[in-house]
Amino acid sequence: MTTGGRITQATEPPADGTTIDVTQVRHELADALERLVEYEQALRAISQGEVDALVIGSTPGEEQIFTLSGADRAYRHFVENMSDGAATVSIDGIVLYANQALADLLGTSCEQIVGRPLAALLDGATREHLAQMVGPHSSGGSFEAALLGSDDRTVPVLIGSSLADERDSETLICITVTDLTRERQAEAAVTYSAQHDTLTGLPNRGLLNDRIEHALARRASDKNVMALLFCDLDGFKNINDAHGHQVGDETLRVVSQRLASAVRPEDTVARIGGDEFVVLCEGLEDMTDAAVVASRVRAAASAPFTAGALTLDVTVSIGVAVASVDDHDASADTLLRDADEAMYKAKRQGPNVIELFDEQLRVVAKSRLRLLAELHSAVEDDQLRLHYQPVVSLDDEKVVGLEALLRWEHPHLGLVAPDDFVPFAERSGLITGIGAWVMGEACRQASEWRRTEPHRALDMAVNVSARQLAQGAGLVESTRLALRDSGLDPTSVVLEVTESALVDDAEAALRVLKELKTLGVRIAIDDFGTGYSSLVYLKRFPVDLLKIDRSFIAGLGLNKDDDAIVRSVIELAHAFGIDAVAEGIETWEHLEILRDLGCDFGQGYLWSPPQPALHHAPPAHGRPAPAAAGPPVARRPPAGAAGRSGYVRQ
Questions:
Q1: For the residues of 424-470, what is the DSSP string, one character each?
Q2: Where are the alpha helices (DSSP H) in 196-331?
Q3: Cβ(134)–Cβ(160) below 8 Å
Q4: Is 107 left (phi over 0), alpha (psi -120 to 50) or beta?
Q5: How far apart are CA 40 and CA 35, in angstroms?
Q6: Sign of the C-alpha dihedral, residues 460, 466, 472, 477?
Q7: Which of 18-22, 27-31, 130-134, 309-313 tops mean pLDDT?
Q8: Is the pLDDT score of 531 beyond 60?
Q9: DSSP type of residue 417
């Protein structure tokens, strides 16, 4: 029998004899077995595509020819060249055939696969699924498994099976093996992206929360404390404003690398906000260890660094909170809140300060948390109030407008000042609903006063928070609705925006302010001079008024620097055709100096503190108490008043 060519021929089977002795039978049986082996080898060769046909018999016209059909050859070609692995398996799980793709996945050859149990190719954890697919009661299907490569590597695969046909009453099972490596890599990339900050590559808030919860669960076994360091860069907005977001981004990347280098590999450094980072440390002895880590982090973050041609100094304020095995109520939320509270206390003390969360802070935090919970129902329970402070023309002391100031009439605590609850309303997002209520109520009250005294044109100033400005569309819509419902002339409404709110995202703020101007309202920059004052704001933003912060007014006549700042702000405003308003005027001397400097308008306790709304409009004149001594204050028009659009509209 020749097996080297494409045609394999077997010799003719022996004829039956009538008389055969034992020796002859043995010889003939031996020959028959040899031929059977040859036949089996030939059949396997044709089934595997090594030959195209098998010819049995040598007498012309009497040969038996077995061939592989065209469809079978096409199928064989497809299987051999498919990208997925393929195998034929017996009912007891032995591999009878394997294609080259399967061999490549395993890093071996087809010959080394055939004859082995299919289970031997899989890791132990996934072999148990094989019984449902390969066996006497095989039902087919698919499952994910790990293929064992020749170099001890594992390959994630999807194994599918189906019944093929029967050969000599033996059931064959077809197996397909699909490589899932790329899918797993793509899934890992998506998971990583969802759990990490794109700019720095650090874990984000979601992954940090998960790691904090796991760390809290481990405290029971290690008996040590864990610490959270809440780190906030000092003056980062100034870097963005002065040098652009590209330098700001580089600053964040440098700081993230420095924080990671200052802690142990097992610690977690996460970025959870714009310039806010959190460090999670486990296995510390006590609060002293946490303070040492905080000092090391501060030193690492605060060293000068270069960004292009710039050399920048960066400092960081750090709040530290710890949890021991005895802190049964500790959670990711409470620890982050405590560390955040400590960080804000550090901020109030100055840059580059570390503050440890203590029991006193805990009492304050719990009190504020309770207030925040009660604030949720303050609007629905009609506990919010507006008080109004007159805005006076410094030329003739006429009341030209009022500023609406928010108060909370707490059922047990009495009147709560805005400084005690507005920051929490800002951070919790409640300020959006509260701000809409303030806008509507202030416009309604102004409209009511106008109906009682139609001959007076009183303006109404409403404060707008940074959170409201950032939301944009919501602020514009709430303003539009308040104007519609009150029927108030839009030009009589002044929206006061703090300077710091403009710095957060100047381009977005500019778009929102332009939309508000299309409604007809006017814009004032509040607390001017306390933030990162820039001529760009006055040049680009549609500003009608500048409000000089009370901190500068308090030093008038006592502090030459404050005198110079107030004079400069007034002159700057007038140069841009904008009116200047002084806040916090409390003495006759303040009034006299501001008049001499040409300030247009003012408000303060000299005339009236903020008061609840009366049924009638406020008095037409402020009429402060006369000075105890000294000459009367000169009555003269403020410099540059003509042509400007402020509280007194031309």
A1: HHHHHTTHHHHHHHHHHHHHHHHHHHHHH-TT---EEEEEE-HHHHH
A2: 205-222, 236-243, 245-262, 287-302
A3: no
A4: left
A5: 9
A6: negative
A7: 309-313
A8: no
A9: P
- What is the C-alpha to C-alpha distance for residues 68 and 58, in angstroms, rounded to an integer? 21
Across-strand partners of 260?
Answer: none
Q: What is Dmax (Cα atoms) for the chain?
A: 157
Could you tell me which of 96, 85, 83 has the C-alpha nearest to residue 149? Answer: 85
Is the pTM above the cut of 0.70? Answer: no
Structural tokens at position 632: 């009367």
Average pLDDT, the chain: 79
Quick one: what percent of the chain has pLDDT higher than 90? 30
Cβ count near 266 (within 10 Å): 9
**Coil, helix or strand at residue 3:** coil
d(CA 601, CA 579): 8
Q: What is the pLDDT of residue 441?
A: 95
Residue 623: both structure tokens together: 């009429």
Cα–Cα nearest to 395, from 176, 641, 178, 221: 641
Order of all β-strands in the sheet with 354-356: 268-271, 276-284, 225-234, 315-323, 354-356
Question: What does the pLDDT average to over 296-306?
Answer: 88
Q: At residue 317, what are phi and psi to the nearest 5 degrees?
A: -95, 135
Mean of pLDDT values over 263-279? 93
Q: Which residue has the tokens 């796991």?
A: 214
With 80 as the cut, is the pLDDT of residue 642 above it?
no
Beta bridge partners of 338: none
Report the DSSP beta bridge partners of residue 414: 410
Residue 641, φ and ψ in degrees, nearest 5: -70, -30
How many other CB atoms sit within 10 Å of the CB of residue 138?
Answer: 19
Residue with tokens 């031996």: 30
Task: Note whether 403 and 349 are within 8 A (CB).
Answer: no
Interior/surface letters 188-201, b for 16+ CB within 10 angstroms, e for the rest = eeeeeeeebbeebe
Scan for tokens 């609705």, then name that residue: 481
For residue 375, CA distances in Å to 276, 371, 384, 446 come to 26, 6, 9, 26
CB 143 within 8 A of CB 178: no
Mean pLDDT over residues 512-533, rounded?
A: 84
pLDDT recorded at residue 220: 61
* C-alpha–C-alpha distance, residues 453 and 469, integer Å: 33
Give the DSSP per-residue string, 520-565.
Answer: T-EEEEEEETSS---HHHHHHS---EEEE-HHHHTTTTT-HHHHHH
CA dihedral over 345, 412, 389, 578, signed as positive or negative: positive
Burial of 467 (0-12, 13-18, 19+ CB in 10 A): buried
Structure tokens at 202: 């650090």
Token pair listed for 460:
């109404």
Most confident of 168-182, 205-219, 254-268, 277-291: 254-268
**Three-state helix/strand/coil letters over 578-641:** CEEEECCCCCHHHHHHHHHHCCCEECCCCCCCCEECCCCCCCCECCCCCCCCCCCCCCCCCCCC
Measured CA to CA in angstroms, residue 29 lies from 14, 18, 26, 121 at distances of: 10, 16, 5, 39
Q: What is the DSSP letter of 196?
A: B
358, 572 contact by CB (below 8 A): no
Per-residue pLDDT for 603 more than 90?
Answer: yes
Q: Which conformational region is residue 281 in: left (phi greater than 0), alpha (psi within -120 to 50 degrees), or beta?
A: beta
